[in-house]
Amino acid sequence: MTELADRPAGHYTELLREAYLRWEACRGTDPAVWTDLMADDFHLFSVGAGRHGAEFSAACRSRDEALIYLTSLSRGWEMLYQPIDDFIEQGNRVAAMGTATWANRRTGKLIETPKADIWTFRGGRAVEVREFFDSAALFAAASPGPPPPSETEPPVAC
Question: Model-level pTM?
Answer without folding.
Answer: 0.84
